[in-house]
Predict the structure.
Amino acid sequence: MSFIHRSLSKAVADLGAPRLRVEGASKRFGGLMVFDGLSFDIPPGGVLGVIGPNGAGKTTLINVICGMLSLTAGSIHMGDRDITSKPFHVVSRLGLARSFQQTNTYSRVSVEENLYRAQRFGAQRIGAANKGPDLGIAGLLEAFGLSGHLQERSDKLPYGLQKMLGLVMVLATRPRILLLDEPAAGLERRERTQVDRFVEHAQTILGCSVLIVEHDMDLVRRLCPRIMVLDAGRLIAEGAPDEVLARQDVIDAYLGPSEEPNHAEP
Amino acid sequence: MTADRHRDIKLDSWSVVSLLSLVVLPLVTTNPIVNSLAYQVAIGISAAMAIYIMLRLGLLSFMVPAFMAVGGYAGAILAKAGATNLLLLMLVAFIVPALAAIPLGALVLRLKGIYFIFVTFLFNEMLQLILFETPSLTGGSNGISAVPPASFLGWSLDTPKALVLVTGLVCLIASVTTLMVTQYFRAEFTSIEENETLTESLGVAVWKYRTIGFVASSGVAGLAGFALVNMLSTAHPSSFASWSVNSYIAYAFVGGRGTMLGMVVGSLLLIAMTNEFAAYAQLSVGLYGILLLVVMMALPGGIVGTCIDYFENFKARSAGNLKPATNER
Amino acid sequence: MESVISAGVIGLSLGTQYALISIGFTLIFGIMGVVNFAHGGFYILGGYFAFTLTHTFGLPFSVALILAALATGAVGCLIEIVFVEKYVADHLATMLITLAIYQIMITGITLLYGAEPVQFRFPVKGSFHGSGFYIPYASMIVSGVCAVAIIAVYYLVYKTRYGIALRAMADDGQVARAQGIAPVMMFPLAFGIATALAGLTGALVTPILALEPTGGEAVLGKAFIIVILGGLGSITGAMISAFVVGLIEAYTSVYLGGSRGALALLALVVLILLVRPQGILGTVARRA
């Protein structure tokens, strides 16, 4: 697609994308306070990176925003809509979708069946976006090397392919806001640019705003004009990656780059 | 449509078609042994279908006898009150348990796995007690006897032949209902069973589909109960004892839990066996146990499942393709 | 007033019996993730073992009791090794496998002893007469033996190395294995202990009630109720709720009449389960 075409479609898509606003979010599990009074927002079409050492509460943050877990206090808004206490599946139907850190596909059936289901379920999307533009899934399958494997059982695919399949499936719900939980985890170095491709695609075709939780700093630098650093549930820094990553307190929080998650994890 | 779904729809549809034989059988033969087998199998298959629907959602419902009782007694009460139209009775036998299943489902479907099984098991016990405690409505421990048989267009279908035919018809309807529900919602049910979180993340209201399955399962069970009561002209608590569910579970798992054909095969095989060993009635329970054990430990797909796997491997190998085909079970 | 005391005594006696049955059941579930649908079968098996030992071999009741419990435990151990071991932690599989085993057991018993109840009588007759109430000596003995057994189980699970190892296995099998605790005989032994407890209870109670092949059916339902109330996997919870259930059952059958009381109890259990699915003391020891 030409540059002009791309920016035009992005502009058009942007008009629909809602702003994600998180205000005063707190999450407690019994005696454990995971995060307290967290506030941030993502402008329509924006990309926000969330980094921080393990245990900082990043995955819990995603779980809470998408509705898998409830907030102890605070609110979450999608545009004007308050989605704080809406159930997981409703939030998805409203256009806020998430991916999972581990591969998450229907492992017992074929790639083709996985896509069929994603599209069938995604059609329950609330809103005019139902009749939106072609999602370009065929192109993505080609780019990620999945087109040759359509009849294969998804759990027989290499890890990287399963991961990308999972991402493509999320797209079928026509999200406006994407929460990506460590999309590059378990991918080989050379496979990681596929995540870039995916995010770019989502932004261009659907005008998605994206929140990316990641450990791969190169990827974060490439994709996120803004990042947030969480440490033990507190927001300790926010801003452009180069600035933030140079800060001493951020470096201290990490004590060096964190370990890559294992491929072999179930 | 992927190959698996195509094959499974075909199998399920053919198994429903095969049930027409149950309806036709009493018309072509007066052999009492065959007819007795036919009606027992018809009732067994209907009950197994109720179990099958819930199995598609990954849940083993022990409540089938309870819903059978609700449907059976509802039909009996209505028939005794004078309304014996077959269609009406079938409708009532389906709807009353289905309605009951809505609030019960809201309570029970929140529970997962073994908790679900425990509670549905306990509900069966509760129903037995409720039957005993409501003699004015249900005849208490004596049940309701002399239930008039269903009639149609003025014909009282009370000859032995007609009774078997009605039972076969009910079985057919129960199976068609099962086919419709499990095929239409196949993607949702299977996805919920396999990976509930993923399914929710894609926007599916899981509770809704669980409820649909539970309601359908209870309606189908109600039909089975009605068939039983109609056949015996009696509605009695002992027909719906909690432990009767073990037989239906045995039919389902030995036959093959993955397809409707499995329900048919399992019921046919086990009931035929019980009849063969009629002299050793007590043995049949032990025999079911042995078969169930063998299936659980060696042939998890049951008879039909194992055959399907065998054929798939055979096909794949003769196509020169050493990889076994994908299978959805 | 007398009926209150009588009912209370009955309730406590029931409580000890139910405790013995449910502790075994919850032990297996909590530690091995095995749902033992054959539990009632082991209960009645204990009864039949005791019956044979006293009637056919003429052994004194007390000896028969112990041997019956051991024999039942041995059978349980064997069954675990042959059939159950591979499916530990798979609730559905173990449930169906033990269900099948239950059916086979009952058929076997019916073939050997017939379907009719056999004459198995408690050796001690008579009752203790308090001011206006009776306590049969049989009940007292049964409660006493059960109480001793419960204490023994507590000691085993909480004080011995084996018990600690077992509980470690329940918490984190991988870590326990890494510490060098070999599970090879641990699970069969645990299963054996649980079934021995069921068998002991059967041997004690069936002479008072009745000994017939279907006598174990009600046991499973009781165990479910008690274990759900007390929390699957919690031994203390099972014990407490066993007494709660025993007392409720005794009082409701005296004051409300048999089935209404049972109905009330079941309704109560279902209600509790919906409000607090983990039961009184339950933890999510194993994912349901």
In short: Strands of chain A lie at 20-29, 32-42, 47-51, 73-78, 81-82, 96-98, 177-181, 209-213, 226-231, 234-239. The longest strand of chain A covers residues 32-42. The domain at 1-95+175-191+207-259 of chain A is CATH 3.40.50.300 (Rossmann fold).
